[in-house]
Amino acid sequence: MRAYEKCDANILQAQCEISPPLCTLGPAWAQKFPPADGRLLVTLNGHQGRVNCIRWVTRQDGGSENELLSGATDKTAVVWRRSTLGQFSAIATLVGHSGPINAVDGLYTRQFDGCSYPRTIVVTASADSTVRIWERKQGTEEFTCLHILLMGNGFALAISITLLPNTTVPLIACGCDDNRVTLYVENEQHQIVKVQTLTGHEDWVRGLEFALSDSGSIFLASCAQDHFIRLWRISPRRGDDVLIVPKAVSELQEEEDIRVKERLFAVIDNDEEKSTFAVTIEAILSGHEGWIYGVHWQPAVYTDGKRHQPMCLISASMDKTAVLWRPDLESGIWLDEVRVGEVGGNTLGFYGCQFSPSGHSFLAHGYQGAFHLWHKSQVS
């Protein structure tokens, strides 16, 4: 596994090899051709098989990520730590799966004061039809398996974890080969339980990522081999809120709008306070003509201690394009703002994508290992 440095970001991708850069297209975005100012930072050696996935352990306060997760065909996940000198070392190896690991994710949990991180939670999904949740408590380097989710005859291809707003309760999303996205939470007995199943995709779910909006709602982006991206909104509900019951179109009055169905679930936090959340479909994004393998939110921006989450997505597809999505300011309809990609050739398209921390650059990597980097120009 190799780490590369480029522009204002350290962008990491597993198992990448060199191949010639190809031409790209798209207004206001230009590929560095050739990327002469990029360089190899470090090669991380620790796995005995092909590395399938990597992910930073995310922080909730916008601080720099210093721990990295990787999963491989050797059936293990490794936790890497970056020192102040920029050197990486393996601090833990998670052993227990009986099949290759397909996806990893992790985060630090916080107290209500937002200043302390009492534990770290890591989620690993494997071809052995299980998802394992690992826990590391503060003051130790050892991870223990907290819970094992059984996927039956299927398996999870994508996972993402976040914290429910104004709580310390982890929310886990699993995208599986049954075309569904399943949501899990940790209950008051510290058990992982299923709370909702989100349907709509018509093929395998290949990518998931959460984002906390400025309004306090969580947005979940899911992409699949059905060529579509679905955006889900998870909103806190107050006790006096009325459950929205959608009507048939024939029952609507002239001044009424069409309402989407809500799915409710409740959690109890450490202080034994009950919180209710509603899940609704926010948008369905159509524009790709091939399997979509990656979808990521633009990172949140912190200015003078204030957090701002840009409502902006990047997606990568086997149709040889990467698309930047953003809602229209007036209508709120999600549109493809920028489309870049390859012209011609015999390549297999893009296998993943990622934003730089500032959001001014994004990267996609080809199925055969090539990096493609675009940087936003100052020309309007």
> Which range best describes the helical content: under 10%, 10-25%, 25-40%, 40-55%, 55-70% or over 70%?
under 10%
Q: Please state the average pLDDT score.
A: 83
> DSSP helix count?
0
Our estimate of the beta-strand percent is over 45%
The H-and-E topology, N to C, reads as: EEEEEEEEEEEEEEEEEEEEEEEEEEEEEE
Number of strands: 30
Rounded to the nearest angstrom, the radius of gyration is 21 Å
Main-sheet strand order equals 8-7-6-5-9-10-11-12
Form type: globular
Low-confidence stretches: 6-36
Distance between the termini: 37 Å
Helix/sheet category: mainly beta
What does this structure look like?
With 380 residues, the protein is mainly β. Helices cover 0% and strands 53% of the residues. The chain contains no helices and 30 strands. An eight-stranded mixed β-sheet has the order 8-7-6-5-9-10-11-12, with no helix packed on it. The protein has a five-stranded antiparallel β-sheet with strand order 17-18-19-21-20, with no helix packed on it. A four-stranded antiparallel β-sheet has the order 3-30-29-28, with no helix packed on it. A hairpin with a 3-residue loop joins β25 (313-317) and β26 (321-327). The two termini are 37 Å apart.
